[in-house]
Queue: 2 jobs
Job 1
Amino acid sequence: MAMSINKSIIIISLFAVAGSSSAMGADLERGKALYENHCQFCHSIKVHSRKNRWPKDLDELRGIVDLRQKETNLHWSKEDIDDVVDFLNTTQYNY
């Protein structure tokens, strides 16, 4: 019985850790820093409150972030894009 309880605690702990971060494995704080350092000079976070201009899902949001980073020659990695998408999704869109 003690072994069963220990396994249950480990499984619950793993789910708690997995749930505390993005499913993409993105770094929320890094995404925030990238956004604040490279995106806010053109627009504030308020631009994301225009619901009629919201991306329809995470894939579209990722596409927008990728397009904008290319247009501004940032040369972001997939991880950079995922971090910014996670930050925007967590703070604005909640997909």
Note: Confidence is low (pLDDT under 50) at residues 13-21.
Job 2
Amino acid sequence: MSRTRALRGLLLADAHRIARDRFLLAAAVYFAAVAVAMRWALPWVAASAHARWEIDLEQYFPLFVSYVALVMGSVAVGIVGGFILLELREERSIVALRISPFPLGTYVKCFSVVLALLGAIVGLAQAAVIGLGLPGWGALVTIACMSGPGAPLVALYLATYPENKLEGFAHMKFVSIAGALPLGAYFLPAPWQYLAGVFPPFWSAKAWWSAEAGDASWPLWLALGTASAVALVWVLSKRLETKALVSARE
């Protein structure tokens, strides 16, 4: 019971940090504004482009909306979580977790689940507000929920590779570049398109595009994205534990 209470207390402390985080507050306002703007602006821009230049932009609605809902949402939540873990590393608090009532790995797993849930909620909320270029609601909810591991993937990368917050900001730019891979890959033919799969959220976006087009293969892409993200989360969590062990010995 003491382990459960200790873990609950630590996760609640992290929740307070997240709630007070100005970046998350700014991101929430930004995403809400983007969702509302896209809901009304996308049809107007598409109609104007078709009337003036006979360009059909509606075919790209699934690309734009999936990028905002799945990729940007996961990256934003992951960045917040990553900097929380990086701060724990800098303060050496994560080293102290090794002698706490529960293993460090348990905390990392629970924190990753929380981030995955937040990522799924953000993605689903964004999609519901925009309401354009969506697959059926059954597929949409499934894709949003199963794409959640993209958030802890980003968080653990930022918590593991940078040595401090300054380096973390530099790595954050790299994450943003990786997040743009689905945008470029959309226009590539298979199998070249699959190279973007090094960034697992691409597969979730691919599942979205397939489901919206009525392609029955979308569960395959979603399963591939979820499995690769979970595998990388496991690898990065082990790396974080190893770095904590090395820090404890110094």
Note: The mean pLDDT is 85.
